[in-house]
Amino acid sequence: MNEAIHKSLRYLLNKRRSRPLAIAHRGASAWANENTLGALLVANSLGADMWEIDVHLTRDKVCVVCHDSNLLRLTGKDICLAEADWNTIRKIHLLGGGTIPSFADVVTLALEMDAGLYVEIKGEGAGFAAWQEMKRQKFSYAILGSFEKEYVQELRDTDCEFPLSILIPKGHNPFALALATGANIIHPCWENTSSSPQELITPELLIRAQEAGLEMVLWHEERPAVLEEILQLPVLGICSNQPELLVPFPVSTNGNHSE
Question: 140: closest CA among 122, 119, 167, 166?
Fold first, then answer.
């Protein structure tokens, strides 16, 4: 692991304090329209340490924050992000409110809010563009990751100084994928495997990850029974559509939980 990545991970671990990082999945997407600036601001107000966002490139190579490659679900309009210019995309209103933000605007907001970014690369070239934008704004509190091996490998091969994450579908070997991609973080996306996916995060899995020098981030979770168990695990972070479920209640000066 190069020194820059080691420094970034150390920073993340220090931010974690005594609990896993609270990572707001697409912002506080249970309470505001996903991946919008509004959802990110709500996440910040609910105590999230990081914002998980998805990135694509438009036709004119602007990095934008959106989960889907096509806007049909979000807008009712059959528009492919990779085939439309940013000037068109920025004017489209989403069905649930808000608009698609540029990644540059999200980085600026994260700097203002002192929030971290967990950047999931969804489109070709978007990871490199996101990395360059964070360098331009001197932003350092971030992780870049993807389900797609080649997107992670591209960043590894160009000496990206941010920690890299590989997202793991059920049935895939996390250690083989980490080795193939050079990822520093494994991210099991196993929330839909059963009503008790926490049982898959075995002591043996955690020990092997530690021995391999890998950190772990867990899927987005909102079920109280599952959260009760995974919040006790020695993982780097946990995602949730409701980030308030991942943070302790605020404590008043007299030692009682505040209202």
Answer: 119
Q: What is the tally of structural domains in the chain?
A: 1
Maximum C-alpha span of the chain = 57
pLDDT at 257: 36
Query: Which residue, 186, 189, 173, 250, is CA-closest to 221?
Result: 189
Looking at the DSSP assignment, which residues form a beta bridge with residue 165? 145, 185
- Please compute, for residue 71, the number of CA atoms within 13 A of its CA located in the half-sphere on the CB side: 27
Read off φ and ψ for residue 111, nearest 5 degrees. Answer: -60, -45
Range of the domain at 13: 3-51+104-246
Residue 211 included in any domain = yes
Q: What is the predicted pLDDT for the residue at 221? A: 98
Which DSSP string corresponds to 37-82?
HHHHHHHHHTT-SEEEEEEEE-TT--EEE-S-SBSHHHHSS--BGG
List pLDDT tens digits, range 41-87: 999 999 999 999 999 999 999 999 999 999 999 999 999 999 999 99
Global pTM value: 0.92
In a domain, 62, yes or no: no
- The residue type of 101 is P
The answer as to whether 173 is a domain residue is yes
Does residue 67 lie within any of the structural domains?
no
pLDDT one-digit tens code per residue, 10-36: 777 776 667 899 999 999 999 999 999
For Cα atoms 88, 91, 94, give the angle at the middle one, nearest 5 degrees.
Answer: 115
**Cα–Cα distance, 116 to 27 (Å, whole number):** 11
CATH code for position 152: 3.20.20.190
